[in-house]
Amino acid sequence: MRLDKFICKSTSLSKPQALAAIHDGEVCVNGEIAQNEAMQVHENNLVTLNGSRLKARPFRYLLMHKPADTICSNIDERYPSVFNYVAVENVSELHIVGRLDADTTGLVLMTDDGRWSYNITVPSKQCEKCYRVGLSRPIAENVAALFKRGVQLQGEDTLTRPARLEVINPQEVLLTITEGKFHQVKRMFSAVGNRVVSLHREKIGAIQLDVPQGQWRYLTDDEVASFGDAQ
Ligand code: URA
Question: Which of 58, 116, 157, 207 is the 20 to 30 Å CA partner of 180?
Answer without folding.
Answer: 58
